């Protein structure tokens, strides 16, 4: 990813990536899984199983919160303001 990121920066092209680790390696930004929420939901489901609820009786859950991450250095190199996003 670092090589691709540098080529994209040199070409003034933003690269939107699939994971926050790729943002850390130079990608411009991603919108992805909020791992804190995922962990809480997983723990709640596991607690139900451990307390005797059958797995078949636990409904499927969908994440409702996502994490937006932007690389401030990459954004600055591209002239893009990402000050309202985290990194």
TrEMBL record:
Annotated protein name in UniProt: ABC transporter substrate-binding protein
InterPro entries assigned: ABC_transpt-TYRBP-like (IPR007487), Peripla_BP_I (IPR028082)
SUPFAM superfamilies for this protein: Periplasmic binding protein-like I
Lineage: unclassified sequences, metagenomes, ecological metagenomes
Annotated PANTHER family: ABC TRANSPORTER, SUBSTRATE-BINDING LIPOPROTEIN (PTHR35271:SF1), ABC TRANSPORTER, SUBSTRATE-BINDING LIPOPROTEIN-RELATED (PTHR35271)
Pfam families membership: ABC_sub_bind
